């Protein structure tokens, strides 16, 4: 591991481990992105995956939101779909449409066409280089989060070939070809474990796993085709980092829409359970407190379309609902491209002021 500057602001790390904080840390999913004009300027000159693959550009857009507001963490600029690319699939990012796979996995026979055991350092070395460079540039300002997509969410894109409301093709695999689906999920799990461990070796100080399409599975299908893989990722990443003598890093799971699985997720090795805005904070708190898990979330991103005063009062209520121990404030999903950066700034500042008020009056 490289030598990097010590952390000046470790609120995010302490909150993730349910330790005492002076104020609640806050960041936003998709905090780097199209809602920032400086991001759009970079994108006007470079294709999406060129930004991901060029460490200087990925580092620049990672740092952009931190120049505007007092965020307590950075997240490396990349995409979950770099894993399917590393397995040999072509992915294009089409403006206005999102990701497109020109040749999705049409049937389980197509699994043979994948590079099933990719050399992660070779195929994804550009991500590790971007992480190293960003850690240097951050100079200890705030922690840098690495991430990956969860196996089911990746499978959903690989089979459906792009975004979908139902991911019915991928879900048909689960019932028509459960064994082949499990083989694909196993392969994605193994690659993800290596990918996440190497992100930490490169300098990532926390990891988030995105199971963005948990909600369309339902509890019994989730229990079979998502949870075991999520659990294995957390257990193995922790074990391998500890075997390498690397200090523990917080692991966050964001299983969007998995209301039915908060209890099961709290029994895995993740340190933080991230809630979307439709999830009940009180219930999640009760379940997760028993397991000493921290929570992340969960303001409705659409709330940022409201006026600044309304944003501040909704944020204050959110901070009170979660409590000031074991909470990382965030949105319940990513920033939308037409949101006003000043409104995100109002959210960030309100998290800080509302939590300081509670802590100082205790
Ligand atoms: C499902 C998913 C993807 N990518 C990601 C997820 C999981 C989170 C979630 O549920 O939203 C994760 C992701 N994608 C991106 C980041 C960067 C870091 C950050 O959060 O700031 C992260 C963490 C950049 C991005 N990834 C994408 C953009 C916008 C594309 C552009 O710049 O043209 C960005 C900034 C594109 C993308 N990438 C993906 C989709 C479906 C889309 C199209 C939708 C959209 O346009 O927002 C796949």
From TrEMBL:
Subcellular locations according to the entry: Cytoplasm
A cellular-component GO term for this protein: cytosol
Keyword Electron transport among UniProt keywords: no
PROSITE patterns in UniProt: UROD_2 (PS00907)
InterPro entries: UROD/MetE-like_sf, Uroporphyrinogen_deCO2ase_HemE, Uroporphyrinogen_deCOase
Transmembrane regions: none
The keyword Lyase is annotated on this UniProt entry: yes
Gene3D superfamilies xrefs: 3.20.20.210
CDD domains: URO-D (cd00717)
Pathway, per record: Porphyrin-containing compound metabolism; protoporphyrin-IX biosynthesis; coproporphyrinogen-III from 5-aminolevulinate: step 4/4
Gene Ontology molecular functions: uroporphyrinogen decarboxylase activity
Coiled coil: none
Boundaries of every Uroporphyrinogen decarboxylase (URO-D) domain copy: 145-161
Short name of any one Pfam family annotated for the protein: URO-D
EC number assigned by the record: 4.1.1.37
Alphabetical list of HAMAP family matching this protein: URO_D
Family membership: Belongs to the uroporphyrinogen decarboxylase family.
Name of the protein in question: Uroporphyrinogen decarboxylase
Organism field: Ciona intestinalis (Transparent sea squirt)
